[in-house]
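Standup notes, protein team

Yesterday: finished cleaning the Hypoxylon rubiginosum set.
Today: DEAD-domain-containing protein structure.
Blockers: none.

Input for DEAD-domain-containing protein:
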Amino acid sequence: MKRKLGENDEPVPTANVETPSAKMTTTFADLGLDSRLLQATASQGWQTPTLVQSKAIPLAIDGRDILAKAKTGSGKTAAYILPILQAILKRKQASSDSHTAALILVPTNELVNQVTKVLESLTSFCSREIKVSKLSDKLSDAAQRAVLSDSPDIVVATPARAWHNIKNSALSLEQVTHLVLDEADLVLSYGYDEDLQSVASSLPKGLQTTLMSATLTPEVDTLKGLFCRNPTILDLAEPEDDEGGVSQYVVKCGEDEKFLLIYCMVKLELVKGKAIIFVSDVDRCYRLKLFFEQFGIRSCLLNSELPVNCRVHAVEEFNRGVYNIIIASDENEVIGDEKDQTDLGDEDTIDNGHGGNTETPEAHSKNTATVQSSKRRKSSRRDKNYGVSRGIDFKNVAVVINFDLPLSSRSYLHRIGRTARAGQTGMALSFVIPKDKFRKHMPTSIETAENDEKVLARIIKQQAKRGHEVKPYSFDMKAVEAFRYRMNDALRAVTKVAIREARLRELKQELLKSESLKRHFEENPLEVRHLRHDVELRTTRSQPHLKHVPDYLLPKEGKKGITPKEVGFVPFKKVLDGKGRRAKVFKSKGRRIGGRKNDPLRSFKARSKNK
């Protein structure tokens, strides 16, 4: 039966076409998976497949090429891993030969580690039959050659690392049957054009290809033409859950007021749960951490200067709940052509804004790279394979704070996708600098803030198309004003010299942990959990009085008087009595049991030490 073609002789997306197997699927057993894979999914607590899994897995088992678009947190990783494992197990029942059968390409080193962990969990009941290897930058060429000499069944790598080993004859693709490009819309944006072209020329004919992405962009069209024969396009939009979703808010304020408001939000516990705070570059990352340290607020960092294993461990500890705040620099965010940011579908031509002229996706990807290189900040000693706003599985994130607004609506979409995953609720709060307040406070000013209002307009338009609203989050600035002098004290201590020293100190500490203790942690894997990433840098002058919030700074209504009434008061951490207090305090004869003594400046009953 012939497939329907569109106006441009392109296959019509089959988003609403349900195969019989997908229509009747209620459990993983209905997908026809091996019993060992069913045991693995059960051990993970997965009861029923997600939408992308129920649609993609039957098609992949039938040998079809797939181009799937699904939102973050929808289970795309398992959707392409399970069919690969099924094919390898089926082949090994007939033959015991060992060779690399699947190559999984991802854009960042963090995703390499994450996908490998998912593979390890899904092969827990067939680990003897299936070997999995990852290629990362922290391994030397000799170590990578040794890993590949065992002919692993599945190899996970970035395109650059994969081509490096193919070129050196360490990785053979002669018998590869499956190729996966995860986060396909980012692969070209991260500058892997030449590597992908080289890998494509080395692949055998007739292999099965799967492309997974959160958005359909011209970059995905380019990859589709490069790797796929006639892919089945799954443009999946999961039904909105009434109890789930992201509540999106925006705050318009001055540049220094960003620090004032985020200090009040965190210190006064106006938000709850674990939070990711996105900033524009590495300098802002350390400035905000040092600012928090002035008030005794613990946080950890995630940026491209830190070693990859330190970044991976920091994410793991954040997911385990060791600390609640992670400050992430997003200097490698995907900028692209803003006119094409919102889900372009399968269009073959792109309006470049010059009187309706068009350009091919290949030319567009080159122009996009040029735009990025002109807008991208300086990146000395930074990992080009680093990415934080997409792909990394941050678990149970309650709040995403765009401390620095991204450069495009597309990046915004990727950032807020870190919360409200798998039907949970979440909150996204973005700080926006109005044009009339730009450059009014030079010590905290950044160049990208000049276009905040333009980017916000695109974000509002983008979210409106998706049926979501970006609401204003109006702080009572009169109630917050009492904290301004404390904010100024803290900012004066966070100088450029202090930031430079903090970056150097942090890098030295993490390199020491990474290299000197590498052998020790390999021999004692449980002790790695004691490694902390939220230690104080202590490069600024200490101001202990800033760590405590006196009652006279708060309005009469308390913390509730600062936040807008329509949002309500939601404490940052779980409370015991539901009234914002951490624990009950009992008084006996003028003293508090389980707490400090009465404040002598209030009671005037203090006694001299000499008496």
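Follow-up from PR in the comments: The mean pLDDT is 77.
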